[in-house]
Every structure is written in structure tokens, then in C-alpha cells.
Amino acid sequence: MKALKITINCFLLLAVTTTFLPGCKKMLGLNLQENYDYKKKTLDPNINMTAKDFLLKRADGTPDAPTDTVFRWMKKGLDYCGFDLSEYERPGRTFIFLHNDAVRGFNSSGVMDKGLFFVFQIIVPDANGNPVMNPTTGLPQTRPATRWEDYSKETVRNFFKYLIGQQVYNYYDLNAENKAVQSALPAGTAATKESLLGYWDPSVSAFNPNGGKGFDQDGKFYLRIQNNADIAPIVFNDRTNDRSMGYIATNGVVHVYGAALYPSK
After folding, report:
1. pLDDT tens digits for 45-75?
2. Were 209 and a residue from 23, 84, 122, 138 both cysteine, which residue would form a disulfide, CB within 3.0 to 4.6 Å?
3. Would you say which domain of life the source belongs to (predicted)?
């Protein structure tokens, strides 16, 4: 969430209404003020809580906002792999959060066609447990995942470690050049091969029929600002734009993504 300046200016609308449509107020039953002093407001990016509390608040909902569960599927993955949530309380970090759509996104027809479950699909085994290979692509045949349990706990745990940067990089700490951020994932970590993540080869940025490491082998992710005329998003690993950014927690900053994240540049 950038700190956006939002100006509410009703003066022009009021002038047009009172000048050209003098009967509108009575007809609509409105009691409009004759003079309106607008005030400029800046949205406060400070969430006044740790990244962990922010995650839990918007994963399970609250009595005041029971339907605010945008991190529910992220939390399901953390629960499944037994992730230590105290990692989200440690200070001086950049936290990459997954909106539900980043895990399992659906089109207007209700068909999953985006998100991690669709991009890193599950390998279809034969009767002996060996991958069934696609002769055209040379890659194993796959199906979309339907739950975190389709993946190994080890790979899910490592994926979430990769989404925690060891320093704080907010919007104003970045520019158009990629900034390498050391993650909490140890260098040299490889993904297991129950899914296409185990065939993702960071060295060529493609799926490798011979298998791949899956994760950036330096344990780093990359952030930069996309220069355009619109919202200038933070781009993760040269591929995915943020959904919202710059939530300032008491122990770092949170950036939220709504599409699949690849664990290498």
C-alpha cells in the first residue's frame, strides 16, 4: 500500500449542482452544505502491529471484519508445513505475503488458471510411482494442485522461508534496478520433485526435463520498481507485480502479491 495522497474535493460538484440544478437538493431530499472545506488526507501505511499479527488478522478474519480472509490460503500453507510463525515477529525484515489469488486463482468461469497451484502443478505418477512423461514437452504429465498437502512439507516450508528478506526494502528504498535481497532460505536449497517446482531451473528460467533446483541457489530474491505512467509496482524476481505494497509493520515492511511467485529471478 503506497502512501497515497487522496484529495476529496466536492466544491466543483456543489457549484454545478447549485448553479444549474437548484431544485436537486429538494428533489433528492439532500441537505448539502453550501460551503465545504475539503481536507487533504494521507493514508497511513503504518499498521501498528507485527507482520505476524497482520497475517493472522487477515487470514482468519475478526469480529469487526469476519470476511477479511485474504491471507487464508497462505496461512493454510504455513500451518501444513509447521512453519515457525515467530519468523514474522523478527525485526528488520521484508515480508512477502501471498494473497489468496497468488495460491489458487480462478477465472470468471470458476476454473483455476493462475496461482501457485496452477503454475507449479503436481506430477502424475504411473502405477510404480514414476513420473508419466509427456513425449511432446519432455516434462512429466501434471495436474493442478488442489491443496498444500499435495506438496512436500519440506518444499512448502522452504518456499515460505524464501519469501522473507533479511533487510527492510520499502518502496522508497528501491529503484528501476534490481535489488538483491538475501532471504531466510539457506543457499543451495533444492525443491523436492513431486511438482514442477522441482523441475524449475533457475539457471535458464524455465522448466528442465532433467530436473532443476527450484529455488535461487544463492537464496536471494530481487525487487525493483517498474517505471510506467500508472502505479509503479514493485516487481518480484522480474516477473510478478505487487497487488499492494508498503504496509509498515512494527518489525519491517509487508508487500502483498496476488499472482504466482517464482522462487528465482
Report:
1. 999 999 999 999 999 888 888 888 999 999 9
2. 138
3. Bacteria
Residue carrying the nine cell digits 496461482: 115
pLDDT in tens, 7-29: 334 333 334 344 434 444 333 44
**Count of Cβ atoms closer than 10 Å to residue 211 Cβ:** 15
Where do the structural domains in the chain lie, given as residue ranges?
1-43, 45-257
DSSP 80-104: HHT--GGGGGSSSEEEEEE-HHHHS
CA–CA distance, 265 with 222 (Å, rounded to integer): 7
What residues have CB less than 8 Å from 220, skipping those under 6 apart?
Answer: 180, 181, 182, 183, 265
Q: How would DSSP label each residue in 14-61?
A: HHHHHHH-TTHHHHHT----S-----EEE---B-SS-HHHHHHHHHH-
